[in-house]
Amino acid sequence: MKQQFLRRVAAAAAVVVLALLSAPLGAQQEGAPDPASRAKSWTPKRLADGQPDMRGMYVSGWFVPQERFTPEEQKAWHDRMVKYRGPDPGAYGSEWFETNAHKDSYKPPPGTVLVVDPPDGRVPFQPWALAKRNYIRDNWLERPEFVDSRVRCLPAGPRFGFASRYNGWQVMQPPGYVIILQEHNHNYRVIPIDSKAARLGKGIQLWAGDSRGRWEGNTLVVEVTNFTDKTWVIGEIAGEGMSVGTFHSPALKMTERFIMRDADNIDYEATIEDPNVYTRPWKIAYGIWERAPKGYENFEFACHEGNRWDELVGATDKK
């Protein structure tokens, strides 16, 4: 199934790459989405503990490129990957073009990318960190730790809401908490809605970090710290792409905002801070979830660390 999925994505990428490379770049971030400004005057039902009711099953909303790259950069990277992996390099390029998994999804403005600040749509790496990210990206089969943790069947870390056509999320709200169950690899988050909840010690590092939440109107604000440094902040879902390798240090802090735009759609924005790796805080924003069709449920996700690594690497890694 995984191989079929990769082949389908690769075929789709091949069809759109030439058109994309010739598309004008100037419009890519005009009218960039601001989730807070899109929130309608809508009042959700309240639960017994006062929380807005966000419960239910959700699937991915927007599928948009990660960063804004020039056509020349895209072509150079594409040519390198073809030389590196052969004529069928897998899922390369699927982060370059926009698509939606569901026809009823809220449509992002044309040219939208995930990184909305800085305005150039690029992660503001320190020079040494940009060189490291690019090396990881361009040599992603050199060693296992260069491959996205999600692809190695480990938690995706900060990318808990990554867009996927085979991933669902269930939101539950017992008193004082928001709990999110993710279909992928049985990941989950437990978010206390209590400003007095004690934080973990600085020496404790978790794949998904340590979350503390609060409600601001219809928006769930979550501050997350205590990340391990073994994950990426953003990156293309299939494990290869121009934003893969967007690493961070354990100093990473994320301030997330889950914005209930209406009864069926959740928008998302996150401010990312890590003075060890980036020159400044930066922000991503997109329509993260839409309510799943009636009867949707999370399925058993069969994935384990080291899953067919030999098949993934193949002869390429032995050259």
Q: Averaged pLDDT, please?
A: 79
Helical content (DSSP H or I, runs of 4+): 10-25%
* Main sheet record: 10 strands, antiparallel
**What is the H/E string?**
HHEEHEEHEEEEEEEEH
What is the 3D shape? Answer: globular
What percent strand?
15-25%
Strand segment tally: 12
What can you see in these coordinates?
This protein has 319 residues and is α+β, with helices and mostly antiparallel strands. The chain has one domain. It contains five helices and twelve strands. It has helices at 2-21, 35-38, 71-85, 127-138, 309-313; strands at 56-60, 62-63, 99-100, 115-117, 168-172, 177-182, 188-192, 210-216, 219-225, 253-260, 265-273, 282-291. It is globular. Mean pLDDT is 79; it is low at 1-33 and 312-319.
Quick tags:
319 residues, alpha+beta, ten-stranded antiparallel sheet, two-stranded antiparallel sheet, 5 helices, 12 strands, disordered N terminus, disordered C terminus
